[in-house]
């Protein structure tokens, strides 16, 4: 009775170091999306989102320039991963989800994710360099991140339906809890909060 379906989320970014930074998470219920593929190529076609997703879901986060005044690049990455985990934990409760992240593995990175997520249990997380050319679910996140980056670079209007896909972090929820301080006041920041832009 407690059986949970398996799901997979791939996370990647575009426009790193420039703003807005764009983080994308693709959710898949298809096991093949989490299986390593040799020779997986980055999709350079302009393509159609629906064709790329084929019943998979995705969400994205735009990180404004102001964030760099308060958080390190590593901490910004932590904020994004935590936001995605909280979103999918809440909205896909029937799934046990494994996360794949394109990036360089750092134990301190995982430790911060674990601390900021508390009391939510940290799911299984795989962090690999070049994950976007190894796992299809990350490959799709990379593709969507570049699509969004191109649209923002050209200052073209995003299709209205994309605004339903935005997750908007609240910076104030992270400023203390993400620091290395072990002050007990951190517990004040462990309350749940709404992640989605009020437009949804």
Strand content: 15-25%
Strand order of the largest sheet: 3-2-1-4-5
In this structure, how is the largest beta sheet organized? 5 strands, mixed
How many DSSP H or I helices? Answer: 4
Q: Oligomerization state of this entry? A: single chain
Q: Secondary-structure element order, as H and E?
A: EEHEHEHEH
Look at the structure and give the mean pLDDT: 82
CATH superfamily: Ribonuclease H-like superfamily/Ribonuclease H
**Helix content range of the residues, please?**
25-40%
The end-to-end span amounts to 33 Å
Overall CATH class? Alpha Beta
**What is the number of independent domains?**
1
Q: Low-confidence runs (pLDDT<50, min 5 residues)?
A: 181-200
Tell me the number of strands: 5
Gyration radius over CA:
16 Å
* CATH fold node name: Nucleotidyltransferase, domain 5
Shape, principal axes of CA atoms:
globular
- Which class of secondary structure composition applies to the elements? alpha/beta
CATH architectural type:
2-Layer Sandwich
Task: Briefly say what this structure is.
The protein is α/β, with parallel strands linked by helices. 26% of the residues lie in helices and 19% in strands. The protein has a single domain, classed as Nucleotidyltransferase, domain 5 (2-Layer Sandwich).
């Amino acid at each position: 009775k407690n059986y949970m379906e398996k799901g997979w989320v791939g996370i990647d970014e575009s426009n790193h170091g420039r703003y807005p930074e764009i983080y994308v998470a693709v959710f898949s219920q298809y096991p093949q999306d989490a299986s390593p593929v040799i020779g997986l190529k980055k999709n350079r076609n302009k393509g159609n989102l629906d064709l790329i997703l084929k019943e998979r879901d995705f969400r994205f986060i735009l990180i404004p320039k102001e964030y760099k005044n308060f958080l390190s690049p590593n901490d910004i990455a932590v904020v994004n991963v935590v936001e995605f985990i909280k979103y999918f934990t809440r909205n896909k409760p029937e799934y046990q989800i494994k996360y794949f992240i394109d990036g360089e593995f750092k134990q301190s990175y995982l430790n911060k994710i674990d601390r900021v997520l508390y009391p939510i249990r940290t799911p299984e997380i795989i962090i690999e360099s070049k994950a976007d050319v190894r796992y299809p679910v990350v490959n799709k996140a990379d593709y969507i991140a570049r699509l969004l980056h191109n649209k923002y670079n050209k200052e073209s209007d995003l299709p209205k339906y994309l605004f339903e896909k935005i997750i908007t972090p609240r910076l104030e929820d992270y400023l203390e809890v993400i620091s290395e301080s072990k002050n007990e006041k951190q517990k004040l920041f462990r309350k749940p909060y709404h992640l989605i832009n009020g437009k949804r």
